[in-house]
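INFO worker-7 received task bundle
INFO bundle size: 2
INFO processing item 0
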Amino acid sequence: MTLGAVARAVGLGMTSIYNYFTDFTELLLAVLEPVMGSAKEEYFSLAREYWPDEQLNARAMDFVRAYHAFWARHTGLLHLRNSLADQFDVRIMHQRVNSTRPLIGLFVAQMDQRGVLGDTAVLMATTLMTGIERSITLATDRRLRRILGTLPGRREESLLEINARLMELAIRDTRERAAAEVAERP
Protein backbone atom coordinates (compact mmCIF):
# COMPACT_ATOMS: atom_id res chain seq x y z
CA MET A 1 0.00 0.00 0.00
CA THR A 2 1.27 3.44 -0.89
CA LEU A 3 0.14 7.02 -0.46
CA GLY A 4 -0.46 7.11 -4.24
CA ALA A 5 -2.74 4.06 -4.01
CA VAL A 6 -4.72 5.73 -1.24
CA ALA A 7 -5.02 8.93 -3.29
CA ARG A 8 -6.33 6.96 -6.28
CA ALA A 9 -8.76 4.97 -4.11
CA VAL A 10 -10.36 8.13 -2.71
CA GLY A 11 -10.21 10.02 -6.02
CA LEU A 12 -7.71 12.67 -4.98
CA GLY A 13 -4.51 13.83 -6.57
CA MET A 14 -1.21 13.46 -4.78
CA THR A 15 -1.05 17.21 -4.21
CA SER A 16 -4.34 17.06 -2.32
CA ILE A 17 -3.17 14.12 -0.21
CA TYR A 18 0.05 15.96 0.64
CA ASN A 19 -2.05 18.87 1.93
CA TYR A 20 -3.12 16.53 4.73
CA PHE A 21 -0.34 13.96 5.14
CA THR A 22 3.40 14.23 4.57
CA ASP A 23 3.79 10.49 3.99
CA PHE A 24 2.06 7.13 4.28
CA THR A 25 3.07 6.67 7.92
CA GLU A 26 1.35 9.90 8.89
CA LEU A 27 -1.81 8.76 7.10
CA LEU A 28 -1.68 5.37 8.84
CA LEU A 29 -1.20 7.01 12.23
CA ALA A 30 -4.25 9.21 11.58
CA VAL A 31 -6.34 6.15 10.73
CA LEU A 32 -5.04 4.22 13.74
CA GLU A 33 -5.85 6.96 16.26
CA PRO A 34 -9.65 6.48 16.46
CA VAL A 35 -9.35 2.70 16.10
CA MET A 36 -6.95 2.42 19.02
CA GLY A 37 -9.11 4.89 20.93
CA SER A 38 -12.00 2.44 20.64
CA ALA A 39 -9.81 -0.27 22.19
CA LYS A 40 -10.15 1.44 25.55
CA GLU A 41 -13.82 0.50 25.69
CA GLU A 42 -13.63 -2.74 23.76
CA TYR A 43 -11.04 -4.54 25.86
CA PHE A 44 -9.04 -2.18 28.10
CA SER A 45 -12.17 -1.62 30.17
CA LEU A 46 -12.29 -5.33 31.00
CA ALA A 47 -8.90 -5.16 32.75
CA ARG A 48 -9.50 -1.99 34.78
CA GLU A 49 -11.43 -3.66 37.60
CA TYR A 50 -9.49 -6.06 39.82
CA TRP A 51 -10.21 -9.69 38.98
CA PRO A 52 -10.91 -11.79 42.09
CA ASP A 53 -8.97 -15.07 42.21
CA GLU A 54 -12.12 -17.17 41.85
CA GLN A 55 -13.05 -15.29 38.66
CA LEU A 56 -9.61 -15.20 37.03
CA ASN A 57 -10.32 -17.71 34.28
CA ALA A 58 -13.70 -16.22 33.33
CA ARG A 59 -12.35 -12.66 33.34
CA ALA A 60 -9.28 -13.65 31.34
CA MET A 61 -11.53 -15.41 28.83
CA ASP A 62 -13.74 -12.32 28.51
CA PHE A 63 -10.64 -10.22 27.89
CA VAL A 64 -9.12 -12.60 25.34
CA ARG A 65 -12.41 -12.87 23.42
CA ALA A 66 -12.77 -9.07 23.31
CA TYR A 67 -9.13 -8.66 22.27
CA HIS A 68 -9.56 -11.26 19.53
CA ALA A 69 -12.80 -9.63 18.32
CA PHE A 70 -11.03 -6.26 18.13
CA TRP A 71 -8.20 -7.78 16.10
CA ALA A 72 -10.63 -9.64 13.83
CA ARG A 73 -12.57 -6.43 13.19
CA HIS A 74 -9.46 -4.35 12.40
CA THR A 75 -7.20 -7.10 11.11
CA GLY A 76 -5.96 -5.42 7.91
CA LEU A 77 -5.07 -2.19 9.65
CA LEU A 78 -3.42 -3.84 12.66
CA HIS A 79 -1.43 -6.27 10.53
CA LEU A 80 -0.23 -3.37 8.37
CA ARG A 81 0.80 -1.50 11.52
CA ASN A 82 2.72 -4.48 12.87
CA SER A 83 4.36 -5.13 9.52
CA LEU A 84 5.63 -1.55 9.32
CA ALA A 85 6.76 -1.70 12.96
CA ASP A 86 8.64 -4.92 12.19
CA GLN A 87 10.33 -3.03 9.31
CA PHE A 88 11.55 -0.47 11.87
CA ASP A 89 9.27 2.42 10.96
CA VAL A 90 10.09 4.32 14.15
CA ARG A 91 6.83 6.31 14.32
CA ILE A 92 4.77 3.15 13.89
CA MET A 93 6.94 1.32 16.42
CA HIS A 94 6.22 4.09 18.93
CA GLN A 95 2.50 3.90 18.18
CA ARG A 96 2.49 0.13 18.68
CA VAL A 97 4.40 0.31 21.97
CA ASN A 98 2.47 3.31 23.27
CA SER A 99 -0.88 1.70 22.49
CA THR A 100 0.09 -1.40 24.48
CA ARG A 101 1.88 0.24 27.42
CA PRO A 102 -1.32 1.25 29.31
CA LEU A 103 -2.69 -2.28 28.91
CA ILE A 104 0.51 -3.73 30.33
CA GLY A 105 0.08 -1.34 33.26
CA LEU A 106 -3.42 -2.70 33.85
CA PHE A 107 -2.06 -6.25 33.94
CA VAL A 108 0.73 -5.23 36.29
CA ALA A 109 -2.04 -3.94 38.60
CA GLN A 110 -3.88 -7.27 38.24
CA MET A 111 -0.71 -9.13 39.16
CA ASP A 112 0.82 -6.98 41.87
CA GLN A 113 -1.57 -4.48 43.45
CA ARG A 114 0.94 -3.44 46.10
CA GLY A 115 3.78 -2.94 43.65
CA VAL A 116 6.18 -5.13 45.62
CA LEU A 117 7.62 -7.00 42.63
CA GLY A 118 8.52 -3.95 40.55
CA ASP A 119 10.12 -4.92 37.25
CA THR A 120 9.27 -8.60 37.71
CA ALA A 121 5.55 -7.86 37.35
CA VAL A 122 6.21 -5.49 34.44
CA LEU A 123 8.26 -8.14 32.63
CA MET A 124 5.62 -10.80 33.29
CA ALA A 125 2.81 -8.55 31.99
CA THR A 126 4.88 -7.53 28.95
CA THR A 127 5.73 -11.13 28.11
CA LEU A 128 2.12 -12.18 28.62
CA MET A 129 0.72 -9.48 26.33
CA THR A 130 3.42 -10.07 23.71
CA GLY A 131 2.51 -13.75 23.57
CA ILE A 132 -1.21 -13.13 23.46
CA GLU A 133 -0.86 -10.45 20.78
CA ARG A 134 1.32 -12.73 18.68
CA SER A 135 -1.06 -15.68 18.85
CA ILE A 136 -4.10 -13.47 18.14
CA THR A 137 -2.16 -11.85 15.30
CA LEU A 138 -1.55 -15.26 13.75
CA ALA A 139 -5.16 -16.34 14.30
CA THR A 140 -6.50 -13.23 12.53
CA ASP A 141 -3.99 -13.13 9.65
CA ARG A 142 -6.06 -13.82 6.53
CA ARG A 143 -2.95 -14.45 4.42
CA LEU A 144 -1.72 -17.09 6.84
CA ARG A 145 -5.16 -18.69 6.87
CA ARG A 146 -5.04 -18.97 3.06
CA ILE A 147 -1.59 -20.54 3.19
CA LEU A 148 -2.23 -22.96 6.06
CA GLY A 149 -5.97 -23.38 5.71
CA THR A 150 -8.53 -21.73 7.96
CA LEU A 151 -8.77 -22.44 11.64
CA PRO A 152 -12.09 -24.19 12.16
CA GLY A 153 -14.25 -22.56 14.82
CA ARG A 154 -13.34 -25.04 17.55
CA ARG A 155 -9.59 -24.69 16.97
CA GLU A 156 -9.90 -20.91 17.16
CA GLU A 157 -11.95 -21.20 20.36
CA SER A 158 -9.28 -23.52 21.77
CA LEU A 159 -6.64 -20.91 21.00
CA LEU A 160 -8.65 -18.33 22.93
CA GLU A 161 -9.09 -20.75 25.84
CA ILE A 162 -5.34 -21.44 25.90
CA ASN A 163 -4.55 -17.72 25.91
CA ALA A 164 -7.01 -17.15 28.75
CA ARG A 165 -5.50 -20.02 30.72
CA LEU A 166 -1.98 -18.64 30.24
CA MET A 167 -3.21 -15.24 31.37
CA GLU A 168 -4.87 -16.77 34.42
CA LEU A 169 -1.73 -18.70 35.35
CA ALA A 170 0.54 -15.68 34.89
CA ILE A 171 -1.67 -13.47 37.03
CA ARG A 172 -2.16 -16.13 39.71
CA ASP A 173 1.55 -16.99 39.85
CA THR A 174 2.62 -13.36 40.06
CA ARG A 175 0.04 -12.65 42.76
CA GLU A 176 1.44 -15.56 44.76
CA ARG A 177 4.99 -14.24 44.33
CA ALA A 178 3.88 -10.79 45.48
CA ALA A 179 2.13 -12.26 48.52
CA ALA A 180 5.24 -14.32 49.38
CA GLU A 181 7.38 -11.21 49.06
CA VAL A 182 5.13 -9.33 51.48
CA ALA A 183 5.10 -12.28 53.91
CA GLU A 184 8.91 -12.44 53.95
CA ARG A 185 9.31 -8.78 54.90
CA PRO A 186 10.05 -8.06 58.55
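INFO item 0 finished
INFO processing item 1
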Amino acid sequence: MTDHPKQLVQGASVLVLGGGPDAEREVSLVSSRAVADALESAGVAVRYEVIDRLSAGQLAAMGGDVIFPVLHGPYGEGGPLQDLLDRDGRPYVGCGPLAARVAMDKMASKLAAARIGVRTAHAAVFNPRDERSPLDAPLVLKPIHEGSSVGVHLCHGSAAWAAALPLVLEDLREHPGRSYMVEELIDGVELTVGVLDAGSDTARVLPPIEIRSATAFYDYEAKYNRDDTQYIVDSPLPEGVKEEIQRSALALAREVGVRHLCRVDYLLDRRGAPWMLELNTIPGFTGHSLLPMAAATVGLDMPRLCATLISWAIRDRRPMK
Protein backbone atom coordinates (compact mmCIF):
# COMPACT_ATOMS: atom_id res chain seq x y z
CA MET A 1 0.00 0.00 0.00
CA THR A 2 1.53 3.28 -1.10
CA ASP A 3 -1.40 5.65 -0.64
CA HIS A 4 -1.31 8.13 2.24
CA PRO A 5 -3.94 7.19 4.88
CA LYS A 6 -5.90 10.36 4.07
CA GLN A 7 -6.10 9.33 0.41
CA LEU A 8 -7.50 5.91 1.40
CA VAL A 9 -10.44 7.65 3.07
CA GLN A 10 -11.23 9.43 -0.23
CA GLY A 11 -11.94 12.75 1.45
CA ALA A 12 -14.78 11.36 3.57
CA SER A 13 -15.41 12.56 7.12
CA VAL A 14 -15.59 9.85 9.76
CA LEU A 15 -17.93 9.48 12.73
CA VAL A 16 -16.19 7.44 15.44
CA LEU A 17 -18.50 5.98 18.09
CA GLY A 18 -17.33 4.84 21.52
CA GLY A 19 -18.78 3.91 24.88
CA GLY A 20 -22.02 1.97 24.81
CA PRO A 21 -24.04 0.34 27.61
CA ASP A 22 -22.04 -2.89 27.89
CA ALA A 23 -19.58 -4.17 30.51
CA GLU A 24 -16.63 -3.26 28.27
CA ARG A 25 -17.58 0.43 28.05
CA GLU A 26 -14.31 1.65 29.60
CA VAL A 27 -12.24 -0.37 27.11
CA SER A 28 -14.37 0.99 24.29
CA LEU A 29 -13.70 4.56 25.39
CA VAL A 30 -9.94 3.97 25.17
CA SER A 31 -10.17 2.06 21.87
CA SER A 32 -12.45 4.58 20.18
CA ARG A 33 -10.34 7.54 21.28
CA ALA A 34 -7.25 5.79 19.87
CA VAL A 35 -9.03 5.26 16.52
CA ALA A 36 -10.16 8.90 16.39
CA ASP A 37 -6.64 10.12 17.25
CA ALA A 38 -5.08 7.88 14.59
CA LEU A 39 -7.39 9.19 11.88
CA GLU A 40 -6.93 12.80 12.98
CA SER A 41 -3.15 12.34 12.91
CA ALA A 42 -3.49 11.36 9.24
CA GLY A 43 -5.43 14.54 8.47
CA VAL A 44 -8.87 12.89 8.29
CA ALA A 45 -11.90 14.90 9.43
CA VAL A 46 -13.27 13.11 12.51
CA ARG A 47 -16.31 13.58 14.69
CA TYR A 48 -15.98 11.64 17.95
CA GLU A 49 -19.10 10.74 19.92
CA VAL A 50 -19.44 8.91 23.23
CA ILE A 51 -22.78 7.12 23.29
CA ASP A 52 -24.91 4.86 25.45
CA ARG A 53 -27.82 3.44 23.42
CA LEU A 54 -28.79 5.37 20.31
CA SER A 55 -32.05 6.14 18.60
CA ALA A 56 -32.22 6.41 14.82
CA GLY A 57 -32.82 10.13 15.19
CA GLN A 58 -29.80 10.63 17.41
CA LEU A 59 -27.57 8.77 14.98
CA ALA A 60 -28.93 10.68 11.99
CA ALA A 61 -28.13 13.97 13.73
CA MET A 62 -24.46 13.05 14.05
CA GLY A 63 -22.31 14.17 11.15
CA GLY A 64 -19.90 12.01 9.19
CA ASP A 65 -19.87 10.30 5.83
CA VAL A 66 -18.62 6.96 7.20
CA ILE A 67 -19.15 5.44 10.65
CA PHE A 68 -16.50 3.58 12.63
CA PRO A 69 -18.22 1.96 15.65
CA VAL A 70 -15.61 0.99 18.24
CA LEU A 71 -17.87 -0.60 20.82
CA HIS A 72 -17.30 -3.91 22.57
CA GLY A 73 -20.10 -6.14 23.87
CA PRO A 74 -23.56 -7.40 22.96
CA TYR A 75 -25.17 -4.06 22.10
CA GLY A 76 -22.35 -2.33 20.26
CA GLU A 77 -20.67 -5.37 18.71
CA GLY A 78 -23.36 -8.04 18.74
CA GLY A 79 -26.09 -6.84 16.39
CA PRO A 80 -28.42 -4.15 17.83
CA LEU A 81 -26.16 -1.25 16.88
CA GLN A 82 -25.53 -2.85 13.48
CA ASP A 83 -29.32 -2.95 12.90
CA LEU A 84 -29.37 0.79 13.50
CA LEU A 85 -26.35 1.39 11.27
CA ASP A 86 -27.98 -0.56 8.43
CA ARG A 87 -31.13 1.56 8.69
CA ASP A 88 -29.05 4.74 8.80
CA GLY A 89 -27.63 3.90 5.37
CA ARG A 90 -24.13 5.31 5.72
CA PRO A 91 -21.19 2.95 5.17
CA TYR A 92 -19.74 1.59 8.41
CA VAL A 93 -16.78 -0.50 9.52
CA GLY A 94 -17.40 -4.04 10.69
CA CYS A 95 -19.91 -6.85 10.39
CA GLY A 96 -23.51 -6.68 9.35
CA PRO A 97 -26.16 -7.57 11.96
CA LEU A 98 -26.37 -11.33 11.37
CA ALA A 99 -22.63 -12.02 11.41
CA ALA A 100 -22.27 -9.75 14.44
CA ARG A 101 -24.83 -11.80 16.36
CA VAL A 102 -23.27 -15.15 15.49
CA ALA A 103 -19.77 -13.95 16.41
CA MET A 104 -20.90 -12.42 19.71
CA ASP A 105 -22.65 -15.65 20.69
CA LYS A 106 -19.86 -17.98 21.85
CA MET A 107 -22.04 -21.06 21.42
CA ALA A 108 -23.08 -20.07 17.89
CA SER A 109 -19.50 -19.31 16.86
CA LYS A 110 -18.35 -22.68 18.28
CA LEU A 111 -21.04 -24.41 16.21
CA ALA A 112 -19.84 -22.51 13.14
CA ALA A 113 -16.30 -23.68 13.86
CA ALA A 114 -17.45 -27.28 14.28
CA ARG A 115 -19.32 -27.15 10.94
CA ILE A 116 -16.09 -26.49 9.08
CA GLY A 117 -13.90 -28.83 11.10
CA VAL A 118 -12.17 -26.28 13.34
CA ARG A 119 -11.25 -27.84 16.69
CA THR A 120 -13.13 -26.29 19.65
CA ALA A 121 -13.70 -27.47 23.22
CA HIS A 122 -16.86 -29.25 24.34
CA ALA A 123 -19.45 -26.84 25.74
CA ALA A 124 -23.05 -26.60 26.91
CA VAL A 125 -25.47 -23.85 27.87
CA PHE A 126 -25.56 -23.34 31.65
CA ASN A 127 -28.92 -24.11 33.29
CA PRO A 128 -29.28 -21.88 36.38
CA ARG A 129 -31.96 -24.21 37.79
CA ASP A 130 -29.52 -27.12 37.94
CA GLU A 131 -26.77 -27.19 40.56
CA ARG A 132 -24.83 -29.86 38.66
CA SER A 133 -22.57 -29.08 35.74
CA PRO A 134 -23.26 -30.78 32.40
CA LEU A 135 -19.48 -31.28 31.99
CA ASP A 136 -16.85 -32.72 34.29
CA ALA A 137 -14.18 -30.45 35.78
CA PRO A 138 -11.87 -28.84 34.95
CA LEU A 139 -14.17 -26.39 33.21
CA VAL A 140 -14.89 -22.73 32.55
CA LEU A 141 -18.15 -21.01 33.46
CA LYS A 142 -18.59 -17.79 31.47
CA PRO A 143 -21.16 -15.47 29.85
CA ILE A 144 -22.13 -16.36 26.29
CA HIS A 145 -22.38 -12.77 25.04
CA GLU A 146 -19.56 -10.92 26.83
CA GLY A 147 -15.89 -10.44 26.05
CA SER A 148 -12.67 -9.37 27.80
CA SER A 149 -13.03 -12.23 30.31
CA VAL A 150 -16.00 -10.51 31.97
CA GLY A 151 -17.68 -12.91 34.41
CA VAL A 152 -15.33 -15.84 33.77
CA HIS A 153 -14.88 -18.51 36.46
CA LEU A 154 -12.26 -21.27 36.22
CA CYS A 155 -13.46 -24.40 38.03
CA HIS A 156 -10.76 -27.01 38.54
CA GLY A 157 -12.95 -29.10 40.82
CA SER A 158 -16.26 -29.36 42.69
CA ALA A 159 -15.27 -26.80 45.34
CA ALA A 160 -14.55 -24.15 42.73
CA TRP A 161 -17.86 -24.93 40.99
CA ALA A 162 -19.73 -24.59 44.28
CA ALA A 163 -18.02 -21.24 44.94
CA ALA A 164 -18.75 -19.91 41.44
CA LEU A 165 -22.41 -20.93 41.34
CA PRO A 166 -23.83 -18.28 43.75
CA LEU A 167 -21.76 -15.56 42.05
CA VAL A 168 -23.15 -16.49 38.65
CA LEU A 169 -26.73 -16.69 39.97
CA GLU A 170 -26.36 -13.24 41.54
CA ASP A 171 -24.97 -11.88 38.26
CA LEU A 172 -27.96 -13.31 36.40
CA ARG A 173 -30.33 -11.60 38.85
CA GLU A 174 -28.53 -8.30 38.27
CA HIS A 175 -28.41 -8.82 34.48
CA PRO A 176 -31.62 -10.67 33.50
CA GLY A 177 -30.72 -10.79 29.82
CA ARG A 178 -27.34 -12.44 30.39
CA SER A 179 -26.78 -16.17 29.80
CA TYR A 180 -23.86 -18.43 30.71
CA MET A 181 -22.14 -21.44 29.20
CA VAL A 182 -19.98 -24.24 30.55
CA GLU A 183 -16.88 -25.14 28.55
CA GLU A 184 -14.16 -27.76 28.90
CA LEU A 185 -11.02 -26.09 30.26
CA ILE A 186 -8.04 -26.46 27.92
CA ASP A 187 -4.74 -26.10 29.75
CA GLY A 188 -2.36 -24.37 27.39
CA VAL A 189 -0.90 -21.25 25.78
CA GLU A 190 -3.20 -18.52 24.47
CA LEU A 191 -2.74 -17.46 20.84
CA THR A 192 -4.61 -14.96 18.72
CA VAL A 193 -4.84 -14.36 14.98
CA GLY A 194 -6.11 -11.20 13.27
CA VAL A 195 -7.90 -11.37 9.93
CA LEU A 196 -8.41 -8.40 7.60
CA ASP A 197 -11.01 -8.18 4.82
CA ALA A 198 -11.94 -11.87 5.10
CA GLY A 199 -14.64 -11.73 2.43
CA SER A 200 -12.39 -10.43 -0.34
CA ASP A 201 -9.93 -12.12 -2.68
CA THR A 202 -7.15 -10.10 -1.04
CA ALA A 203 -7.92 -11.18 2.55
CA ARG A 204 -4.92 -10.91 4.84
CA VAL A 205 -4.26 -13.14 7.86
CA LEU A 206 -1.89 -11.45 10.30
CA PRO A 207 0.98 -13.13 12.16
CA PRO A 208 -0.24 -14.96 15.27
CA ILE A 209 0.55 -13.53 18.69
CA GLU A 210 1.40 -15.62 21.74
CA ILE A 211 0.16 -14.17 25.03
CA ARG A 212 2.25 -14.80 28.12
CA SER A 213 0.35 -13.59 31.14
CA ALA A 214 2.15 -13.03 34.44
CA THR A 215 -1.00 -14.30 36.18
CA ALA A 216 -2.47 -17.79 36.06
CA PHE A 217 -5.44 -16.50 34.07
CA TYR A 218 -5.34 -13.90 31.28
CA ASP A 219 -8.19 -11.84 32.78
CA TYR A 220 -9.50 -8.30 32.26
CA GLU A 221 -6.77 -6.82 34.47
CA ALA A 222 -4.01 -8.62 32.54
CA LYS A 223 -5.52 -7.60 29.20
CA TYR A 224 -5.88 -3.89 29.84
CA ASN A 225 -4.22 -2.67 33.03
CA ARG A 226 -1.13 -4.73 33.81
CA ASP A 227 2.19 -4.01 32.11
CA ASP A 228 3.79 -7.40 32.78
CA THR A 229 1.84 -9.37 30.15
CA GLN A 230 4.15 -10.35 27.29
CA TYR A 231 3.02 -10.45 23.66
CA ILE A 232 5.23 -12.35 21.21
CA VAL A 233 4.32 -11.60 17.61
CA ASP A 234 4.93 -14.53 15.26
CA SER A 235 6.46 -16.56 18.07
CA PRO A 236 8.00 -19.97 17.30
CA LEU A 237 5.23 -22.57 17.36
CA PRO A 238 5.19 -26.35 16.86
CA GLU A 239 5.41 -27.40 13.22
CA GLY A 240 2.22 -26.71 11.30
CA VAL A 241 0.43 -24.82 14.09
CA LYS A 242 0.88 -21.34 12.60
CA GLU A 243 -0.48 -22.50 9.25
CA GLU A 244 -3.39 -24.32 10.90
CA ILE A 245 -4.59 -21.40 13.01
CA GLN A 246 -4.17 -18.88 10.18
CA ARG A 247 -6.09 -21.14 7.82
CA SER A 248 -8.86 -21.89 10.33
CA ALA A 249 -9.19 -18.22 11.41
CA LEU A 250 -9.84 -17.16 7.81
CA ALA A 251 -12.21 -20.09 7.22
CA LEU A 252 -14.20 -19.28 10.36
CA ALA A 253 -14.41 -15.58 9.49
CA ARG A 254 -15.77 -16.48 6.07
CA GLU A 255 -18.19 -19.07 7.47
CA VAL A 256 -19.68 -16.47 9.84
CA GLY A 257 -19.68 -13.71 7.19
CA VAL A 258 -17.27 -11.32 8.91
CA ARG A 259 -16.48 -8.03 7.14
CA HIS A 260 -13.33 -5.92 7.36
CA LEU A 261 -11.69 -7.20 10.55
CA CYS A 262 -11.78 -9.79 13.29
CA ARG A 263 -9.58 -11.57 15.76
CA VAL A 264 -9.81 -15.29 16.50
CA ASP A 265 -8.48 -16.59 19.83
CA TYR A 266 -7.04 -20.07 20.42
CA LEU A 267 -5.55 -22.19 23.18
CA LEU A 268 -2.60 -24.39 22.28
CA ASP A 269 -2.72 -27.50 24.47
CA ARG A 270 0.26 -29.42 25.83
CA ARG A 271 0.18 -31.80 22.86
CA GLY A 272 0.55 -28.90 20.41
CA ALA A 273 -3.08 -28.91 19.21
CA PRO A 274 -4.85 -25.53 18.85
CA TRP A 275 -8.45 -25.11 20.07
CA MET A 276 -10.62 -22.19 18.92
CA LEU A 277 -11.93 -20.11 21.85
CA GLU A 278 -13.89 -17.21 20.38
CA LEU A 279 -14.29 -14.75 17.54
CA ASN A 280 -14.13 -10.97 18.06
CA THR A 281 -15.48 -8.69 15.34
CA ILE A 282 -14.57 -5.35 16.94
CA PRO A 283 -11.29 -6.20 18.68
CA GLY A 284 -9.63 -3.66 20.91
CA PHE A 285 -7.58 -0.69 19.72
CA THR A 286 -5.92 0.13 23.04
CA GLY A 287 -2.19 0.23 23.71
CA HIS A 288 -2.36 -3.44 24.75
CA SER A 289 -4.57 -4.54 21.86
CA LEU A 290 -3.49 -7.41 19.68
CA LEU A 291 -4.85 -6.85 16.17
CA PRO A 292 -3.22 -3.40 15.79
CA MET A 293 -0.02 -4.88 17.25
CA ALA A 294 0.08 -7.60 14.59
CA ALA A 295 -0.98 -5.22 11.82
CA ALA A 296 1.93 -2.90 12.62
CA THR A 297 4.39 -5.71 11.86
CA VAL A 298 3.12 -5.91 8.26
CA GLY A 299 3.25 -2.17 7.57
CA LEU A 300 -0.18 -1.15 8.87
CA ASP A 301 0.40 1.32 11.68
CA MET A 302 -2.70 2.71 13.42
CA PRO A 303 -3.41 5.60 11.01
CA ARG A 304 -3.03 3.36 7.95
CA LEU A 305 -4.97 0.49 9.53
CA CYS A 306 -7.90 2.71 10.51
CA ALA A 307 -7.93 4.50 7.15
CA THR A 308 -7.83 1.16 5.32
CA LEU A 309 -10.84 -0.07 7.30
CA ILE A 310 -12.70 3.10 6.34
CA SER A 311 -11.82 2.54 2.67
CA TRP A 312 -13.31 -0.97 2.83
CA ALA A 313 -16.48 0.37 4.42
CA ILE A 314 -16.83 2.85 1.55
CA ARG A 315 -16.22 0.07 -0.98
CA ASP A 316 -18.83 -2.20 0.63
CA ARG A 317 -21.54 0.42 1.08
CA ARG A 318 -24.94 -1.18 0.65
CA PRO A 319 -27.21 0.40 -1.97
CA MET A 320 -30.04 2.47 -0.50
CA LYS A 321 -33.46 0.83 -0.75
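INFO item 1 finished
INFO post-check item 1: The mean pLDDT is 92.
INFO post-check item 1: Residues 25-41 form the longest helix (17 residues).
INFO worker-7 idle
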